[in-house]
Amino acid sequence: MTQRTQQFSLKVLTINTHKGFTALNRRFILPELRDAVRTVSADIVCLQEVLGAHEVHPLHVENWPDTSHYEFLADTMWSDFAYGRNAVYPEGHHGNAVLSRYPIARYQNLDISVGESEKRGILHCQITPPDLDHPIHVMCVHLGLKEIHRQQQLTLLSDYVNELPEGHPVVVAGDFNDWRQRANHPLKVQAGLEEIFTRATGRPARTFPVRFPVLRLDRIYVKNASASSPTALALSNWRHLSDHAPLSAEIHL
C-alpha cells in the first residue's frame, strides 16, 4: 500500500432498522431514525431489515415516504446507495442496504439462505473513495436465527471474503444474531476477519434489546484495516428507534 492509502480513514455505522417501526410495530419512526442516523456523520451506513417496497403501509401509515426506505434515509447526505432484496412477500420486500458518501463502483447481493429458512443475504459493495488506489469491500450482513444455519452462513461469508483480491481492505458489518458468540473464531481462522469491539475490549458489544442490552448480536469486522473509537450508541435518543443498538467505528486503512 502507498503512504496515502495507509492514512485514509472513514466512519462506519451499522443498524437494524426494524423496517422503520418501533418494537412490536406500534409506531412508524423512519423520519426520526433518519435524523438520528444523520447525527453520527458516518461515511458508510450498513442497514439491515430495511424495506425496499410495501403496497399496504403507504395506504394507512402517516408520513410514509414516496421513495424506498434506503433512498429516504440516504436523502442528500449519502450520494450513493445499494440495496439487496432478501425477504419477498405479497405486500413487498425487505433486505440489506448500504449508504455511502463515496461512489459504489459495483455491488452484488449474495444469497446465503439455508434450506427453507428465512431468506438471508450479504450485500457486497465495492466502494471507491478518490483518495484510494483500490476499492474498499463493504459487506452488509444479516444472518439467520438458528445456530446450525449461522454456522453454514459464516462459512459462506468466509469463502466470499477469501475470493477478494489479496490486500484489499474489507469491512463486514451487520446483525449476526450470534447470541452464543460463536462467530469470531471461525471468521478469524477461515477468513482473517477481526471483530473490532472484541479487539478493543475482549468481547463484542451488547446491542439487544436496545433498552437494556444483554445480547451481543451486532458486529463490525475488518481485514487489512484497523479501527478506533468503537461505540455502541445505546443512548436515550436511540432507544425507541430500533430494537438493536447501532454500532459505529473509525476505520483506518
Which sheet architecture does the biggest sheet show? 6 strands, mixed
Architecture, according to CATH?
4-Layer Sandwich
Whole-number count of domains? 1
Strand order of the largest sheet: 3-4-2-1-12-11
Please state roughly what percent of the residues sit in beta strands, choosing from under 5%, 5-15%, 15-25%, 25-35%, 35-45% or over 45%: 25-35%
Please provide the ordered H/E string of secondary-structure elements: HEHEHHEEEEEHEHEHEEE
Radius of gyration: 17 Å
Tally of alpha and pi helices: 7
What is the C-level CATH assignment?
Answer: Alpha Beta
CATH topology: Deoxyribonuclease I, Chain A
Distance between the termini: 9 Å
In CATH terms, the superfamily is Endonuclease/exonuclease/phosphatase
**What is the overall shape?**
globular
Q: Helicity level, as a percent range?
A: 10-25%
Describe it.
The protein contains seven helices and twelve strands. It has 253 residues and is an alpha+beta fold. A hairpin with an 8-residue loop joins strand 6 and strand 7. Helix 5 runs parallel beside helix 6. The longest helix is centred in the middle third of the chain and has 16 residues, at 147-162. The radius of gyration is 17 Å and the shape is globular. GO terms for molecular function: catalytic activity. Residues 33-244 form the Endonuclease/exonuclease/phosphatase domain.
Topology overview:
Elements: H1 3-6, E1 9-16, H2 30-40, E2 44-54, H3 57-60, H4 69-74, E3 80-89, E4 92-100, E5 104-111, E6 121-127, E7 136-142, H5 147-162, E8 170-175, H6 184-191, E9 194-195, H7 196-201, E10 218-223, E11 226-232, E12 247-252
Parallel strand pairs: 1-2, 7-8
Antiparallel strand pairs: 1-12, 2-4, 3-4, 5-6, 6-7, 8-10, 9-10, 11-12
